[in-house]
Specification:
The complex is a heterodimer of chains A (425) and B (119).
Chain A lengths: L2 H27 L2 H22 L5 H19 L5 H16 L3 H5 L4 H11 L6 H11 L5 H7 L4 H17 L9 H24 L9 H17 L4 H14 L25 H16 L6 H14 L8 H14 L3 H15 L1 H11 L10 H12 L3 H14 L3 H21 L1
Helix pairs in contact in A: 1-2, 1-3, 1-6, 2-3, 7-9, 7-10, 8-9, 10-11, 10-12, 11-12, 12-13, 12-14, 13-14, 14-15, 15-16, 16-17, 17-18, 18-19, 19-20
Chain B lengths: L1 E9 L7 H16 L3 E6 L7 E6 L2 E6 L7 E10 L3 H18 L6 E6 L6
Antiparallel strand pairs in B: 1-5, 1-6, 2-5, 3-4
Helix pairs in contact in B: 1-2
The chains are: A mainly alpha (425), B alpha+beta (119).
């Protein structure tokens, strides 16, 4: 193996083991950010040693031992530590003597600690962006450079975000706490929000040329799967997982070979990932069993499920989708949800009924710069044969769109409307 | 990246000892909880299967057992992983269990990335 090969192996093992390392150490240190730092040191040790000694037979146990050694050193080094830490150091020293085999330590159920880790990284006292960076680092094991690449930001920005977030946690004494019961449900919203933010960052890639950043989607999916396994009674966790699995199932069908977006109704449904749809439907079913059918994420998942279950675009149950949007709008008043309802109504009842809703939204300040409003309006006008107005709407939409691929699509539609206007006049 | 793992071994299947089942259960549990394992399954003995084959332009059905079977596929798993290195690390951990708990066992865990279904 070359040094580069070993490096890749180290990182691969690292990503598999990292949650266990952090959770194991934070249990000893009662400080999640500190535990994260020391596990990073263990990673560096592996990068340094393995090229010389070869990859150990049980690499996970090696990393755990290295991390524990650092935790112990840390506790010994700092003589000013509170008594509680001294007690822990003593416990650990004894533990280390009594239990030189790290395998049994690795076998502990980490569910509770992992939950604590996730809730610490996604603490509501941190900004959404900081939570996302911290979660990717502490839960998914991404390096600062990888996170920076995924968010199209300079590495220094992400590094600073992470450092500040950890400082905030340590200062406010929030470095080690586990919400339970009702508190857990309340705090869960903050976690789900971050997971969905990460997913959408990958799924929609609002800025720049790149349409898809699948890795972020995969990380978000993985985090949600972790969440439902350690907090299985939370319907909204299942709802979010369902929503993301179902959305991700269309990943391969969303762009053509030139990288241009293909609208949902024009996608080749044979390319939708049936394994992922099955998993999404199972999660949605679970959310409903737990009484969460009317939840924010479960309702959105239910809408996507209507698409996933329609064999062809013509089979889509639009009245049902319009109804789900109405329920969603009743839950959280939002002009964007209303706009989506308009699209569904347009399919269920025809463009005129939808245009009434869309014209009402035209005054909405929140939608002033939102390209999908004129885009939807253009589509409805086109279907009503008002081609010239449709062209103007598509042009306005293209002006507002931030993604070049979307701009191209909207300009094409404007041109279509323009030539239709010419031939009908 | 999605990976398919196919475990095969020569000759008839033997029942793994309980320690092996326990260790495998633990690993599977960890991987499901970590959101990496999407699907898995063991397969019934090869004798209970059948083969539909085309040879010399003709279609024929052969019921098990198959005399010429040298390697028997015993099970599969589907994982969602970041890259081949991660997939290899998983396979090695899984096979290490066989080494630890089933001395003398021989077999192969083949891993294959799914062909990208995108454009």
């Amino acid at each position: 193996m070359t040094a580069a090969d070993i490096n890749r192996t180290v990182l691969a093992v690292w990503r598999i083991e990292q949650p266990r390392l952090i959770t194991g150490l934070s249990r000893m240190l009662r400080d999640v950010p500190l535990a994260e730092e020391l596990t990073q040191e263990a990673l560096l040790a592996a990068i340094e040693h393995w090229p010389v000694t070869g990859v150990p037979e049980k690499p996970g146990a090696w990393l755990m031992a290295a991390a524990k050694r650092r935790a112990l050193d840390h506790l010994r080094r700092d003589r000013m530590l509170a008594r509680r830490h001294a007690m822990i150091a003593l416990d650990m020293a004894q533990e280390q003597q009594a239990m030189p085999d790290w395998d049994s330590a690795l076998d502990d159920d980490i569910g509770d600690e992992l939950l604590r880790l996730i809730f610490t990284a996604c603490h509501p006292c941190l900004s959404r962006e900081a939570r996302a960076a911290l979660a990717l680092r502490m839960i998914c094991g991404l390096t600062t450079a990888e996170i920076a690449r995924a968010f199209l930001l300079p590495e220094a920005t992400i590094a600073q975000r992470i450092v500040r977030a950890k400082r905030t946690l340590s200062k406010s004494g929030l470095a080690y706490e586990t919400p339970r019961g009702e508190q857990l449900s309340a705090r869960l919203a903050s976690v789900l929000e971050v997971v969905y933010l990460i997913f959408n960052e990958g799924y929609t890639a609002a800025r720049g040329e790149q349409w898809l950043r699948p890795q972020l989607c995969d990380e978000a999916l993985r985090m949600a799967r972790v969440l439902v396994s350690i907090a299985p009674r939370e319907p909204e966790a299942h709802g979010l997982l369902a929503l993301m699995e179902l959305n991700a199932s269309r990943m391969a069908a969303r762009t053509n070979p030139a990288g241009e977006p293909i609208l949902l109704l024009e996608q080749d449904r044979a390319r939708w990932d049936q394994l992922q749809i099955r998993r999404g439907m199972q999660s949605l079913g679970r959310a409903r069993e737990l009484g969460g059918a009317g939840g924010f994420y479960a309702l959105q998942a239910a809408i996507v499920a209507c698409h996933a279950q329609a064999a062809t675009a013509d089979d889509t149950d639009w009245p049902q989708i319009a109804e789900f949007y109405a329920q969603l709008g009743a839950l959280v008043a939002s002009p964007i949800i209303e706009l989506n309802r308009a699209v569904a109504v347009g399919m269920a009842e025809g463009p005129q009924a939808a245009l009434v809703i869309v014209e009402r939204l035209a005054q909405e300040p929140a939608l002033k710069a939102y390209h999908l409003l004129p885009s939807v309006r253009g589509d409805l006008l086109y279907r009503l044969g008002r081609h010239d107005e449709a062209r103007a709407a598509f042009e306005a939409a293209a002006e507002l769109a931030g993604n070049r691929r979307e701009q191209d699509l909207l300009r094409r539609r404007a041109a279509e409307a323009a030539s239709a206007a010419v031939s009908s006049s | 990246m999605r990976f398919m793992y196919i475990v095969s071994h020569p000759g008839p299947s033997t029942n793994p000892p309980p320690e092996m089942m326990q260790a495998m259960g633990k690993l599977a549990d960890r991987e499901i909880k970590a959101g990496r394992m999407l699907d898995n399954g063991g397969l019934m003995p090869v004798e209970t299967g059948a083969r539909v084959r085309i040879a010399d332009g003709k279609l024929s059905v052969i019921d098990g057992p198959f005399v010429e079977a040298k390697e028997v596929v015993g099970g599969y798993a589907i994982f969602e992983l970041r890259d081949k290195e991660e997939a290899l690390a998983m396979a090695k951990e899984f096979m290490q269990l066989h080494l630890d708990f089933m001395p003398g066992w021989e077999g192969t865990c083949e891993l294959r990335a799914f062909a990208p279904s995108g454009p």
